[in-house]
Amino acid sequence: MTRLAQVNPFFFIAAKPTGGKSMGVRQARSERALAEALRKERLVLLRTWKLPGWLGGEKAPGLKDHAELNAQLAQLLSRGVPLVEALEVAASVVTEGFRARTLRLQELVAGGDSFHEACRKIGGFDTVTIAVYRAAEQTGDLAGACERLAVGIRRQLAVRGKAATLMIYPAIVLTISVVVGIGMITFIVPMIGGALEKTGRDLPWFTVMLMSIGLFIRAYWVWLMLGVGAVLVLAILGRGAVGGLINRMSRRVPMLKDVVFAQESARFFSVMAAMTRSGIPLADALGVGVTAIGDPGLRRDLDRLRTRLIEGGVLRTLIDQVESMPLATRRLLIAADRAGDLEHAFDGLADDYQEEVDKRTSRVLATLEPMLIVFLFVIIGSLILSIMIPMMNMSGQGL
Fold it and tell me: Does the global pTM surpass 0.70?
């Protein structure tokens, strides 16, 4: 088996055609390979410094990189451009972090490796993508497979964008409210409360409590910041466990669990559409596609369906037994199986669930807005009342 040369990060200085200089960090197997890559960009390498692997190690490509690569390959291969040349062109349009990996992919293919085997060797491609490439090479429709993968990845990006919007909006509001609340409780409440306390009048218990908390934060802010930093470091180190906890909680929160279910279903049917259209047997496609499902009940039912399908079960009967899947979805799949058109059914369901994510996300955001307003009132309003109530009491007693 061919073994790939190790890729290392280099800090480089290169001369531009216009006379200026360019510098940056780039991945390459050697200084010579780096000089060749820069030459294609009309840059002349002047000097390099090899960096430690941990400082600039090669990162796994993101969904946008995969979408761009597949879109370029689909466009070029469908017009008769050889795969090696198509990969060279694709390397010029992907992000810099993915360029070195694409060029290594081109070298392996030029050396005689099949495309799916080259993808497996260089890493960064999931099992779904590699399986689709392998089936497409067997059927001779690599361009069509790349196009379907690009469409599926763009669906995932759209769904992920909706999920990010759903999380970013409340996160921003909560962050602002916490920062403003800490500022008020640390500076404003103790200052005004201290002035009122000098008048010799008794303050309400909650005003005294908030003043004590504010003074404590001011006295020990360094230790509190270190504690917050330690919590953040632990959260980053244990991000897998934190992410799992968030996923489990999101499946129990009303309305939010519907968004998560629709998001996972959109990805599942998108994967199934890409794999079945590439000629992959349904049982094999289910074995890979089920990895997109996080819901324990639905995943268990789909695993059982796949097992019974391999044992010789009738698909339309098995689908009807997946009770964790919506009835309308089951009926549509049964009708598609009878018509022998599961590929189009998977594609249509992926689009339907993507629209469902859009609608449910809008509903959740509409519900969150009044809830966030109430939360802001509780946080900021309680701090304002802790100041206003003693002032109003003093004013009433003075009258």
Answer: no
d(Cα 91, Cα 28) in Å, to the nearest integer?
A: 14
Domain boundaries, the chain: 8-56, 63-153, 154-399
Q: What is the pLDDT of residues 337-372, one digit of tens each?
A: 888 888 888 888 888 888 888 888 888 878 877 887
Domain 154-399 has CATH 3.40.50.1370: no
Question: What is the residue type of 43?
Answer: L
101-152 pLDDT, tens digit each: 888 888 889 888 899 888 888 878 887 788 888 888 888 888 888 888 888 7
Distance CA 74, CA 70 (A): 6
Using CA atoms, how far apart are residues 13 and 27, in angstroms rounded to an integer? 14
Strands 44-50 and 8-15: antiparallel
CA–CA dist 97, 27 (Å, integer): 8
Q: Which of 152, 96, 90, 94 is nearest to 115 (CA)?
A: 90
- Fold agreement between 63-153 and 154-399: yes
Q: Is 9 helix (H, G, I), strand (E, B) or coil?
A: strand
Q: 63-153: which CATH architecture? A: Up-down Bundle (1.20)
Residue 253 near residue 108 (C-beta atoms within 8 A): no
